[in-house]
Amino acid sequence: MPHKRPRKVLADRLVVAILFAGSMVAILVTVGIVLSLVFETVRFLQIVPLTEFLFSLHWSPQTAIRTDQVGASGEFGAVPLITGTLLISAIALAVAAPTGLFCAIYLAEYAGSKTRAIIKPTLEILAGVPTVVYGFFAVLVIAPILRAGGDEIGLSISSESALAAGLVMGIMTIPFVSSTADDALVAVPLSLKEGALALGSTRSEAIRKIVVPAALPGIMGGMLLAASRAIGETMIVVMAAGLAANLSLNPLEAVTTVTVQIVTLLTGDQEFDSAKTLAAFALGLLLFLVTLVLNVIAQYIVKNYREQYD
Amino acid sequence: MNSLTISSPEQSGLLHLANLNMDYAKSMGIAPERSTPKIIAADLNRLEVESLNVWYGETQALYDISLNIPQNQVTALIGPSGCGKSTFLRCLNRMNDVIETCRIEGQIWFDDTDINGSQIDVVGLRARIGMVFQKPNPFPKSIYENVAYGPRIHGLASNREDLDRIVMESLEQARLFDEVKDRLNAPGTSLSGGQQQRLCIARAIAVKPEVILMDEPCSALDPIATAGIEALIGDLKDAYTIVMVTHSMQQAARVSQKTAYFHMGQLVETGTTDQVFAEPVDARTRDYITGRIG
Amino acid sequence: MTDTRNPAHLRERHRSEKIFRFAGLGAITLAIAFLGTLLVSITLSGYSAFQQTRIQLDITLPADPESASYQDLVKQALRATFPDVSQRRSKKELYALVSTGAAYEVHQFARANPARAGTELEIWLTASDNVDMLIKGKVLVDDEAAVRRLSDRQISWIEQLTTANRLEKQFNSNFFSNGDSREPEVSGIAAALAGSFFSLIICLILAFPLGVMAAIYLEEFAPKTWLTSLIEVNINNLAAVPSIVFGLLGLAIFLNLFELPRSAPLVGGMVLALMTMPTIIITGRASLKAVPPSIREAALAIGASKVHSVFHHVLPLAMPGVLTGTIIGMARAIGETAPLLMIGMVAFIVDVPKGILDPATALPVQVFLWADSPERAFEERTAATIIILLVFLMAMNLVAVILRRKFETRW
Predict the structure, then answer these.
(1) How many domains does the structure of chain C reveal?
(2) Average pLDDT of span C227-241
(3) Quick check: B131 and A191 CB within 8 A?
(4) d(Cα C80, Cα C74) in Å, to the nearest integer?
(5) Predicted complex: ipTM over 0.85
(6) Domain range annotation of chain B
(7) Are C288 and C222 in contact (CB under 8 A)?
(8) Residue C369, domain extent
(9) What integer pLDDT is reported at residue C3 of this predicted model?
(10) Is residue C208 located within the same domain as residue C350?
(11) Residue C282 belongs to a domain
(12) B95–A213: do the CB atoms touch at under 8 Å?
């Protein structure tokens, strides 16, 4: 074995060290996110108590401009924002989950390979459209249709209704559900499906009773990821949902979400130290933690199912 | 085993009735477990395959196969790897429909109807012709649920007791009941290989088919489990017609009454097992049996 | 010859099968219908923005381009075209036919053509947005005055100009040469285009090397330690963090800690790079993994070092996949809005940015800003900007697909 010159070995080691440094950036970013969010949240909690943030039912972010201003108490209760976020996300999932799942079932189990090769990329287009475009679509087309439809049947539907925003968010989420569900269905071993068919099942019976239950962990993981996506979505709700915090579960009313408030608090003329801008970071930390938990659970579920077929 | 050769259609019709009565008596629980020897009709065929040709896309896998499957016998399909035996087997219950590029020409007669006809309900067909696969494929459900799956979807049990009875009988017929009777709720995948295969057999039997197709049922099992399955097959043929693909000639010789030798997609030779193994007619058969090829 | 034990049950089962299959097909039809509605409605809304109504006037250019009042020149020209207009109110309505930016257009023309100073010419000037909306059919003559925002007198003047071939729709070059404006008829996406361009360049310069480096390290060199697992978990999580959180990070660290200029493409690009990096790493790893071990082993067997085998043998083969992943990451970055809002790219930008430190906006942010505007004319421009954005996206994805097809090697 020829003896390598020490200089070359050193050069190689240097290269690997540089590569390692590059990959440490990933950790740096996460650390940066956590630190900046936590730091500002701590400063926020020095002004507004945690109990108010988590449990108060009123969100009216105002700060005193002058120390002697009367009625300067704003309230920073995040509950209406959380319910608004959950309402719109729930509507989105109600649209995306069944549609996405049935799309995946049809693609994985019924469509021929030619059909699949055309339809699957077409569905992916839905995922590639920027969310600001969906937001504009919601305002331009969906909200007026819902409003007009509501007038026809005597319901008063707000032009910033949770229904409009949730519906469009659902459309955007369909490919996420269908893509992960498709992967999960295709991963079910053919021998299971054939076993069911050989016993005289119809295709839908084999799918409903054997394939889908076997693919369930992967499908659930996909749904959780979709939920996480819906909760963290910003532009559709900024453009189509309301700004006023409204503690309501009525989809026909206007509600606001965590992401909308983050944008509103930070795109005005604010000095950085005021409670309003700090509140945005506190909301950001809340959002980050919730989506992180959902993602971790989703990954855990998906990993568990993979072990079944080893 | 006693056997009577029947030559006239009236006699074969009577024979058919006699066998049916025996089945009925057994199912009512009024016939003894080990019955009097079954009367075999030498020319009563359960399935008749006529000029079967199969293509996967552009490649032809089976060339002009004509073969009769006699009732209540074990018919073994032997031959080297890739000769088309599994493809042929899967044609008998239309499992090749699952494969997109597969194209079939020819007729397969089952009760005077061609199962490749356009009017055929595949779901109903597969309730009468069941299949056991090479690698045991129990569903990720409990042992009970595995066996109960077939009867449930076909609506064979009118209540829970009925279903319990069917599950129990099927497991008994498959010689598995004693080993699992106190853990029917355990997952089917927790059993050993041989037990899993017997579970799959019980699952197939629970639908009360008339024919059972077995695709190398023992190739994934150890010798002891294999012996168990072979003994089971010997029992099962009294009630069912069995077609078995095997890559082991010794197994074919042990278990079957009729043997068909496949070679590169063609049916080279067929006859009673004794005939084919003792005095093969075709040179290719002889080569395979003596181990010169395959 | 079917199983006749339970025929009614069997029919029921076949009916369920049909319904189930129909539901699957229905879901796909629904999804595609949504997509179609989205694309069609936006295209229908936006295609008209690529034209702009213009009015032709006879204007005498001043002898000295810099010392004239172009407003007066335009007003003069209008009065000359309709000499009967005398009342003050009528005159105001007359002047309102052209855009408030028309004076500036004449000024630009005079500057660009010093040789023609002092001569009289016919110049096409941008009409006001109210006129534009009428000509494009977005408002109708029969609409009530409040919606129409044009008086009957103005309508008759418009008709006269049209008959005299002095008013027509022309290609809307303003849209591509101007930045944002309060007046929709002279507003354009030039500033947003430049801002997006600069931001993407920065994003690419930062994310590509870092992403590829990390992918190579993790796939080829990383030992199986807890640290490596931690890095991998991190990357997977970062890929799923909402984009607005990256914006908050950019705000807290790049703007406040590092005190970089607000709404600069540099900062925008940095934030986008942080978002795009996980995608590049994940797709990069997949491409590297797809290169069979035999390639690496062959290189090592002839005495090459591991580093050499990776960079000279493995990486070139994995490059098409890496590039495809990068293009897809960039395509996502070009449409991202929320993080850019956080770092201040939400300002009203009129001048086209010339560098990465100038205040800028981006295409998707422009869409967001215009979508909020009350003027009717901004609606079609918003849709037109979306059309441009989608065209870019389509082009990028097409390149990625072609790249993948061309270089896809089946091992």
Answers:
(1) 2
(2) 89
(3) no
(4) 10
(5) yes
(6) 9-289
(7) no
(8) 190-407
(9) 64
(10) yes
(11) yes
(12) no
Does the B9-289 domain belong in CATH 3.40.50.300? yes
Choosing from C172, C199, C231, the residue where a domain stops is: C172
Q: What residues 134-153 of chain B have any CB closer than 8 A to a CB of chain A?
A: 135, 137-140, 149-150, 153
Question: Does residue A238 sit at the C interface (CB-CB below 8 Å)?
Answer: yes
pLDDT, mean of residues C361-381: 90
C20, part of any domain:
no
Contacts of B124 in chain C (CB under 8 A): 1-4, 10
Say what the pTM is: 0.87
Q: C4 lies in a domain?
A: no
How many angstroms separate the CA atoms of A211 and A206, rounded? 6
SS3 B213: strand
pLDDT in the model for residue C361: 92
B49 class by beta-carbon count within 10 Å (0-12 exposed, 13-18 middle, 19+ buried): buried
Contact B203 A199 (CB under 8 A): yes
Residue C333 and residue C237 share a domain: yes
pLDDT at B44 over 90: no
Asked whether the beta carbons of A267 and C348 are under 8 A apart, the reply is no
CATH label of the domain that carries residue C283: 1.10.3720.10
Asked whether the beta carbons of C244 and A31 are under 8 A apart, the reply is no
Among the partner-chain residues B112, B115, B155, the one whose CB lies closest to the CB of C9 is B155
Do B206 and B167 form a contact (C-beta atoms < 8 A)?
Answer: yes
C410 touches chain B (CB under 8 A): no
- Whether residue C317 sits in one domain with residue C203: yes
Contact B103, B54 (CB under 8 A): yes
Task: Give me the mean pLDDT over the A71-94 stretch.
Answer: 87
The b/e string for C288-298 (b: 16+ C-beta within 10 A; e otherwise) is beebeeebbee
Name the residue type at position C244.
I
Question: Which residue in B111, B120, B155 is closest to C6 by CB distance?
Answer: B155
Q: How far off is chain A from C173, nearest CA to CA, in Å?
A: 23
pLDDT at B39 over 50: no
Left, alpha or beta for C224 (phi > 0: left; psi -120 to 50: alpha)?
Answer: beta
Residues C58 and C206 in one domain: no
A170 compared with C103, residue with greater pLDDT: A170
Mean per-residue pLDDT of chain C: 89
Give the one of A192, A194, A308 whose C-beta lies nearest to B98's C-beta: A194
Neighbour tally for A58: CB within 10 Å:
13
Which chains sit next to C, with 3 or more Cβ pairs under 8 A?
A, B
Distances, alpha carbon B235 to alpha carbons A218, A226, B147, B172, B176, in Å: 42, 54, 19, 12, 14
Q: Which of C145, C172, C199 is the last residue of a domain?
A: C172
Decide if C105 contacts C126 (C-beta within 8 A).
yes
Tell me which residue has tokens 């041989």.
B194
Strand partners, B49: B67, B108
In this complex, is the C-beta atom of A153 within 8 Å of any C-beta atom belonging to chain C? no
Nearest CA to C337 out of A286, A233, A34, A171 is that of A233
Reply yes or no on whether the pLDDT at C346 is more than 80. yes
Which residue among A189, A199, A209 sits closest to B204, beta carbon to beta carbon? A199
Q: What are phi and psi of A156, to 5 degrees?
A: -95, 105
> In this structure, are C155 and C252 located in the same domain?
no
Among A8, A32, A131, the residue with its CB nearest the CB of C249 is: A32
Domain shared by C203 and C352, yes or no = yes
Q: Examine the pLDDT at C26 and tell me if it is beyond 70.
A: yes
Q: C217 and C155 share a domain?
A: no
| The two structure tokens encoding residue A27 | 């950790």
| Type of residue at B62 | L
Indicate if C332 and C276 belong to the same structural domain: yes
Contacts with A128 from chain C: Cβ below 8 Å: 331-332, 393, 397
Confidence of residue B34 (pLDDT cuts 50, 70, 90): very low
> pLDDT by residue (tens digit) across A187-214?
999 999 999 999 999 999 999 999 999 9
Residue B32 has pLDDT above 50, yes or no: no
